[in-house]
């Protein structure tokens, strides 16, 4: 109660200062357009290595703007720190220099935005500083800023009020800058390799392209239920049918599923499709994408995630799922076996399974139980069973498996890719098998997308496809242990 009263007292004091700006100083408390000549980091880059004498002789005049985040001194002299998007710079304000302009900074609160015209200098301690010659009030903060020493103690507040997190936490601010730069690096890599960036529908009449539960909405004008997309895959492959040989999309995906440190109901993926490629070509593409992204945060492509060094500079390892299972458990799934035999092996190794599962499902469960967590350095795992890969092409040498891979790092999946299934007859059979799974209780199984099958019947060239979880990649590259730290506005339960 006392804390709430103190907050209200501070807010009242700020509103009184707001009135002072209008009544005594005749200023607009919320300012107008302001032209600056440089950002804080640009000044540091230009003048950090200059001596005090060089700056005095040069009389370098600058105009900056930013939020006041610290204030020291009183009376005739004030030192203050101002922050803009690039960083912080110190400002030195003297009443003798500013005259009637001085009350602007004297009465300013932490959080206020000011424009400062001044001369570059250095203090006796050697700190680069702007000696203010004129001040412009740009915006009044009516609420007190978070404590700069303690930040925001309530983690939920960081996610609910991200703007406060960005104000108080420079590390968080930097992380979201890196996110943007990482996505730009991925786009640059894709563009350089002649991929065309496209946009596909978010609202769809059939949710397909992944095994996931969709969000359902209703279109009033058409009087039909529609689904928010759970993947971009099927529409991108329609474009390949149409002759767009290399396409990609970076965009939001929506899945009506649980939430945990690696899952948010809406998240960002990149999917790409390249005509005449197979999954081995896509391995090369994926490795290139990850190296390009890592280059944003590390010159040598080595990063540290949760205390473990990950080397992204080397060639990524490649291994068949069946070989990895055999290495870890001794179980040899290369042998043909009945469902009953696979279930017996699962029972012996305490692997849970559903009654409707086929052998391929059990193989995948063995991999998830015994292998996934052991894959620390980048590893392409290929050869997934047909039963868990409804959109992937069967392997020519062993039709039980598909030409599909997943990329694992630190025990987590970061990419999923395959030689695309372009046989419309086989695709229909796979969809029908998925529909049967749905009837048997798997509500994440896909339905039958008749329009997509029709598109395939017009002919799709051999194609390699890729899906990358952008948020997980950024978690890895920024050493973040929860997706909420890399999504600006994560989904939260209403207060």
Automatic annotation (TrEMBL):
PROSITE patterns: AA_TRNA_LIGASE_II. Keywords: Aminoacyl-tRNA synthetase, ATP-binding, Cytoplasm, Ligase, Magnesium, Metal-binding, Nucleotide-binding, Protein biosynthesis. GO terms for biological process: lysyl-tRNA aminoacylation. It is found in: Cytoplasm. It holds the Pfam family tRNA_anti-codon. One of its GO terms (cellular component) is cytosol. Its cofactor is Mg(2+). InterPro entries: Aa-tRNA-synt_II, aa-tRNA-synth_II, aa-tRNA-synth_II/BPL/LPL, Lys-tRNA-ligase_II, Lys-tRNA-ligase_II_N, Lys-tRNA-synth_II_C, NA-bd_OB-fold, NA-bd_OB_tRNA. Coiled coil: none annotated. Its EC number is 6.1.1.6. Transmembrane segments: none annotated. Residues 176-494 form the Aminoacyl-transfer RNA synthetases class-II family profile domain. Gene3D superfamilies: Bira Bifunctional Protein, Domain 2, Nucleic acid-binding proteins. It catalyses: tRNA(Lys) + L-lysine + ATP = L-lysyl-tRNA(Lys) + AMP + diphosphate. Mg(2+) 2 binds at residue 413. GO terms for molecular function: ATP binding; catalytic activity, acting on a protein; lysine-tRNA ligase activity; magnesium ion binding; transferase activity; tRNA binding. Binds 3 Mg(2+) ions per subunit. Mg(2+) 1 binds at residues 406, 413. Belongs to the class-II aminoacyl-tRNA synthetase family. Homodimer. This is Lysine--tRNA ligase. The gene is lysS.
């Amino acid at each position: 109660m006392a804390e709430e009263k103190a907050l209200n007292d501070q807010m009242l004091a700020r509103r009184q200062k707001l009135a002072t700006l209008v009544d005594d100083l005749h200023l607009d408390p919320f300012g107008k357009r302001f032209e600056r000549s440089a950002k804080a980091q640009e000044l540091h880059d230009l003048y950090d290595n200059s001596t005090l004498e060089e700056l005095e002789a040069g009389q370098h005049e600058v105009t900056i703007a930013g939020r006041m985040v610290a204030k020291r001194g009183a009376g005739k002299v004030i030192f203050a720190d101002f922050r803009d998007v690039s960083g912080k710079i110190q400002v030195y304000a003297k009443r003798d220099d500013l005259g009637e302009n001085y009350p602007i900074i004297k009465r300013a609160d932490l959080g206020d935005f000011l424009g400062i015209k001044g001369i570059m200098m250095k203090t006796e301690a050697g700190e680069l500083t702007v000696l203010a010659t004129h001040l412009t009030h740009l915006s009044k903060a009516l609420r007190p800023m978070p404590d700069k020493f303690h930040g925001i103690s309530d983690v939920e507040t960081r996610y609910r009020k991200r703007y406060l997190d960005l104000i108080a936490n420079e590390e968080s601010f930097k992380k979201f800058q890196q996110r943007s730069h990482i996505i730009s690096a991925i786009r640059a890599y894709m563009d350089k390799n002649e991929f065309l960036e496209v946009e596909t529908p978010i609202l769809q009449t059939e949710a397909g392209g992944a095994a996931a539960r969709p969000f359902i909405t209703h279109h009033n004008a058409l009087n039909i239920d529609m689904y928010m997309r759970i993947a971009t895959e099927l529409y991108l492959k329609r474009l390949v049918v149409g002759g767009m040989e290399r396409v990609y999309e970076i965009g939001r995906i929506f899945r009506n599923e649980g939430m945990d440190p690696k899952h948010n109901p809406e998240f960002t993926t990149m999917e790409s499709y390249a005509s005449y490629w197979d999954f081995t070509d896509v391995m090369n593409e994926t490795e290139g994408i990850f190296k390009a992204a890592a280059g944003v945060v590390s010159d040598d492509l080595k990063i540290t995630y949760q205390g473990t060094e990950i080397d992204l500079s080397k060639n990524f390892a490649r291994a068949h799922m069946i070989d990895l299972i055999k290495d870890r458990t001794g179980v040899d799934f290369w042998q043909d076996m009945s469902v009953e035999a696979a279930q017996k092996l699962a029972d012996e190794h305490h692997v849970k399974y559903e009654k409707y599962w086929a052998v391929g499902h059990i193989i995948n469960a063995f991999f998830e139980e015994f292998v996934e967590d052991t894959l620390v350095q980048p590893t392409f795992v290929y050869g997934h069973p047909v039963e868990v890969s409804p959109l992937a092409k069967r392997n020519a040498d062993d039709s039980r498996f598909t030409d599909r891979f997943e990329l694992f790092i630190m025990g987590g999946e970061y990419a999923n890719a395959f030689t695309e299934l372009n046989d419309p007859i086989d695709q229909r059979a796979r969809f029908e098998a998925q529909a049967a799974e749905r009837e048997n209780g798997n509500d994440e199984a896909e339905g039958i997308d008749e329009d997509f099958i029709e598109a395939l019947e017009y002919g799709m060239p051999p194609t390699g496809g890729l899906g990358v979880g952008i948020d997980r990649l950024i978690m890895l590259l920024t050493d973040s242990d929860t997706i909420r730290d890399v999504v600006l506005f994560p989904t939260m339960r209403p207060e």
